[in-house]
């Protein structure tokens, strides 16, 4: 009969070392994490496919535009009248820049324009988002370029997002193909080229890709680069669309939600908010201090979001989050109202009238609101959109992926909220293993913008493109398939991490090597590899029980010297540490293996709760956690030889000096 041990994590992407003497190296999933020749070639193929798909979409859309209008064969005036509604207005400024005697004079004409509005001289660069026309006109005057870059950039951005989420560029290829196949619902660029959203959405997609990369686990060396890329893409997005502040507001709500449920670190939250604020303020400067940007809700919201809500049990934390959220939104709208009054900002009031009227229970007589509400594009999303998405097989994988990820996110959020700040290091590690931050961000992105799309048809282009990346992630992610199979109880034997561990032991360690670890795992090691064990699950032997209790001190608060002595006394050459035991959250406080060891050693247990008066604080940190920091005291005695997301294997080094002999089985004393 054997006592239980914690469950192992199920995530399968791993990192390991072929030789026991090698030091630990960090490896990241997905793009650019392995520098072997095979990985470099595979990654290069993936990047080439992304560029190829982008160019294919570019040529395809350009051909559709040409076939629809015979654009290159019609008169100049016929080309110009093909630019519908506001597209013609924006194109006129591009044409004005091209016809100006010089770039400088063209810019002055835009800054002091008296041809757009009668009896008024306005600054077009301040009033309108037309920097893209200025940039292209300058480029056109300096370089011989004529191309449609928007579809290519958008497809490449979706490709990268799907690749980052799933770890396979095949998901990126599938996302790109879905985007092209669903062009009716993913883009309007073929017949409204100069529409603001056609310029901005590719930058939004690039921003989402950079945020996804920034939030990936174990991202270290490229973190600063990602922050700058997030800023650049956010800035370009804000510069090219007048509705940028409302899109960023939804993003701020996503960040706020993930922060509340402990799925983002304080550093990540602060960085993402600063990127948003910096992007908006940079655009504010470029648009000659446009007061509409200063009246943005997202600027007011950011001020109140950094608050410590991470103390207390489930009900306490939920109450704090609810109260804090109410205060945040009340203060946000109050300060926003006062700011707009002080600055006399009325540029965006028609948008708020539209939103208010759209969700009102009775008709409105307001002219501005009615002007929008009577347009089909600002109505509810037609159901035939879903039919078209289903016809291309996009909707079928998207919905199950959404449901599976939403359920997993709910479970992860519940677990995080059920634990307070007490055992912070283990809780953060457990949260990272329960649900990846980058996946959580993209999930909330597709959920919230999906709601926006259903409420306003014109906004569907923000949602449908991202749908392609999420659906491709669902189809190509081995991690999701593993989770699905486990949910359906079709997978009961082993995990990929365990298989990888057994393979490594069989091929990279001596056949006479002695392994220490949990009883359940060592039984598997005996079966799969034939290696020698320090302990095993046959618990009906007093000496073995004593030895097992000693070996389990690797999960207690003991010094590296004590643990080394215990393992050497048992004859161990290697010790296998399991995250699912070290950071166990399945059992209640007092029943976790680390709690049982703390009580046996006379130490206070982790986390909030009562402790017996005779228990004392431990002098040393928990060994299984502290050894992962690679401190000098630990690396002098142990060398990491294998690591994935479930297991850490350390080889016991041989001491150079001869130390005094210790008892055969050291007692488990505090």
From TrEMBL:
Entry's InterPro entries? Dpy-19/Dpy-19-like
Entries under Pfam families matching the protein: Dpy19
- Please list where the region (Disordered) is annotated: 1-29
GO molecular function of the protein, one example? glycosyltransferase activity
Question: Carries keyword Ribonucleoprotein?
Answer: no
> In which residue ranges is the amino acid composition biased (Basic residues)?
1-14
Coiled-coil annotation reads none
TM ranges are 40-62, 152-179, 228-256, 284-309, 321-339, 395-418, 463-484
Tell me the compartments it is located in: Membrane
> Bias regions of kind Basic and acidic residues — which residues?
15-27
Task: Look up and give the membrane topology term.
Answer: Multi-pass membrane protein
Give GO cellular component annotations, separated by semicolons.
membrane
Does this entry carry the keyword Signal?
no
Keyword annotations for this protein, in alphabetical order, are: Glycosyltransferase, Membrane, Transferase, Transmembrane, Transmembrane helix
Q: Which family does it belong to?
A: Belongs to the dpy-19 family.
What is the recorded name of this protein?
Answer: Dpy-19 like C-mannosyltransferase 3
- Record organism: Oryzias latipes
């Amino acid at each position: 009969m054997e006592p239980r041990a914690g469950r192992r994590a199920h995530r399968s992407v791993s990192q390991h070392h072929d030789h026991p003497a090698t030091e630990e190296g960090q490896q990241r999933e997905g793009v650019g994490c392995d520098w072997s020749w095979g990985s470099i070639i595979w990654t290069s193929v993936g990047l080439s496919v992304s560029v190829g798909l982008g160019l294919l979409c570019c040529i395809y859309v350009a051909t559709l535009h040409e076939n629809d209008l015979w654009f290159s064969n019609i008169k100049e005036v016929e080309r110009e009248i093909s630019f519908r509604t506001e597209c013609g207005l924006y194109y006129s400024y591009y044409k004005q820049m091209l016809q100006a005697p010089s770039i400088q004079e063209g810019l002055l004409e835009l800054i002091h324009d008296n041809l757009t509005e009668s009896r008024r001289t306005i600054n077009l660069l301040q009033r309108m988002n037309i920097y893209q026309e200025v940039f292209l006109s300058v480029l056109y005057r300096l370089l011989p370029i004529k191309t449609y870059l928007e579809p290519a950039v958008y497809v490449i951005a979706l490709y990268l997002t799907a690749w980052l989420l799933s770890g396979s560029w095949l998901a990126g290829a599938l996302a790109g193909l879905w985007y092209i196949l669903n062009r009716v619902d993913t883009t309007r660029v073929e017949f409204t080229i100069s529409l603001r959203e056609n310029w901005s959405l590719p930058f939004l997609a690039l921003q989402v890709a950079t945020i996804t990369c920034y939030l990936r686990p174990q991202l270290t060396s490229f973190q600063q680069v990602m922050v700058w890329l997030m800023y650049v893409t956010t800035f370009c997005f804000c510069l090219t669309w007048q509705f940028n502040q409302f899109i960023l507001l939804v993003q701020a709500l996503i960040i706020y939600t993930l922060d509340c449920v402990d799925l983002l670190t304080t550093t990540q939250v602060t960085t993402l908010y600063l990127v948003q604020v910096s992007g908006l303020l940079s655009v504010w400067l470029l648009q000659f201090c446009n007061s509409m940007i200063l009246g943005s809700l997202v600027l007011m919201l950011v001020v109140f979001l950094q608050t410590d809500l991470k103390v207390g049990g489930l009900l306490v934390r939920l109450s704090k989050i609810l109260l804090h959220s109410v205060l945040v939104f009340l203060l946000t709208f109050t300060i926003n109202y006062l700011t707009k009054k002080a600055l006399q900002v009325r540029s965006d009031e028609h948008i708020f009238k539209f939103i208010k009227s759209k969700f009102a229970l009775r008709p409105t007589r307001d002219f501005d609101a009615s002007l929008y509400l009577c347009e089909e594009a600002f109505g509810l999303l037609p159901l035939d959109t879903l039919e078209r998405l289903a016809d291309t097989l996009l909707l079928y994988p998207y919905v199950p992926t959404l449901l599976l990820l939403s359920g997993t996110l709910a479970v992860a959020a519940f677990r995080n909220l059920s634990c307070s700040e007490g055992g912070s290091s283990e809780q953060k590690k457990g949260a990272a293993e329960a649900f990846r931050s980058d996946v959580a961000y993209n999930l909330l992105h597709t959920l919230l913008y999906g709601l926006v799309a259903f409420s306003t048809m014109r906004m569907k282009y923000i949602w449908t493109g991202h749908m392609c990346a999420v659906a491709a992630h669902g189809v190509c992610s081995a991690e999701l398939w593993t989770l699905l199979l486990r949910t359906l109880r079709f997978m009961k034997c082993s995990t990929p991490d365990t298989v990888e561990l057994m393979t490594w032991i069989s091929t990279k360690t001596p056949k006479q090597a002695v392994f220490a670890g949990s009883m359940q795992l060592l039984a598997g090691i005996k079966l799969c590899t034939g290696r020698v064990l320090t302990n095993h699950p046959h618990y009906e032997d007093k000496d073995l029980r004593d030895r097992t209790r000693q070996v389990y001190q690797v999960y207690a608060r003991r010094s590296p010297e004590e643990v080394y002595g215990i393992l050497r006394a048992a004859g161990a050459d290697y010790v296998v540490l399991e995250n699912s035991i070290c950071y166990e959250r399945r059992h209640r406080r007092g029943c976790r293996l680390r709690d049982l060891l703390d009580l046996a050693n006379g130490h206070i247990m982790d986390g909030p709760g009562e402790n017996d008066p005779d228990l004392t604080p431990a002098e040393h940190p928990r060994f299984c956690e502290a050894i992962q920091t690679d401190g000098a005291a630990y690396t002098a005695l142990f060398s990491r030889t294998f690591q994935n997301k479930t297991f850490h294997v350390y080889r016991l080094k041989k001491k150079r000096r001869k130390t005094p002999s210790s008892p055969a089985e050291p007692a488990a004393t505090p």
